Amino acid sequence: MTGWGRGREEILGMLQRRELTQVVADDKLAERMIETARRHLASAELLAASDPHLAYSALHDAVRKALAALLQTQGLRATTAGGHLAVQQAAKAQFGSSMGGILRPVDRIRITRHESEYPTAGTWIDEDTVRDDLPAALAVVDAAEKALPHLSPFVT
Fold first, then answer.
1. Is 25 exposed, middle or buried (0-12, 13-18, 19+ CB in 10 A)?
2. Cβ–Cβ contacts within 10 Å for residue 64, how many?
3. How far is CA 121 from CA 83, 115, 118, 124, in A?
4. CA distances from 7 to 10, 20, 91, 104 (A)
5. How much is the pLDDT for 1?
6. Whole-model pTM?
7. Cα–Cα distance for residue pair 50/26, rounded to 1 Å
8. Residue ranges of E strands in the chain
9. Within 13 Å, how many C-alpha atoms sit on residue 1's CB side?
10. What is the CA radius of gyration of the chain?
11. Contact predicate 154/23, CB 8 Å
12. Highest mean pLDDT among 89-103, 105-119, 129-143
């Protein structure tokens, strides 16, 4: 995953649109973000039965922070203009094919979390919803952690 062929044009476009910004690449910060993501997953599991909405938010935050860790290692960060969606789009542009199907559930998790925050009459998050998506979230965090040592800073 070194080099900058895959996803380069998408990242450049996101930088131009100010959805991403360049920061100092920081491997230690990225590792701490992965650790935080793992704690969020543990919290999601603990809260699944008693507070599934909060558990699902923790699950979503774990995925988002793991993907943001990939960007941090590369010296990239989402801006307020890009937000959570920019993190997801940048990760998919760069790693979508190399991580196989691991990133496929990310959009569904983001949408489900959004629906839990802004519910309609048909929205329902329960323990099963959390437990069904925990393995997918764990796979994203694991894949991000494995990818970190192979990344280099983005150079425009």
1. middle
2. 26
3. 27, 10, 10, 8
4. 5, 13, 9, 17
5. 39
6. 0.89
7. 36
8. 20-22, 76-78
9. 24
10. 15
11. no
12. 129-143
